[in-house]
Amino acid sequence: MTIAWNYPFIFWNKNFSFEGFYDITGSEGTSASHYQAQPQILWKVHDKLYLGVEYLYWHNKTGRAGFNESAMQAVVRINF
């Protein structure tokens, strides 16, 4: 199951958005259940250019129990 969102907002007269997704997968065979979340805060610099940060958390990555990933990342997005 995947939940995705995109919530635009204005802060200091600048356009921002809070967006991302949350994905959960049940266990199957020898694979453990796992989930991944990746929320982002983006500043709309121009019509097609966004800058921001995101946080990635993946619990039991690719179904391997105890193998977790956690990372803060910079985002540069260009929409064509």
Automatic annotation (TrEMBL):
Taxonomy of the source species: Bacteria, Pseudomonadati, Pseudomonadota, Gammaproteobacteria, SAR86 cluster
A GO cellular component entry from the record: cell outer membrane
Native organism: SAR86 cluster bacterium
Matching InterPro entries: Channel_Tsx-like_sf
Protein name listed in UniProt: Nucleoside-binding protein
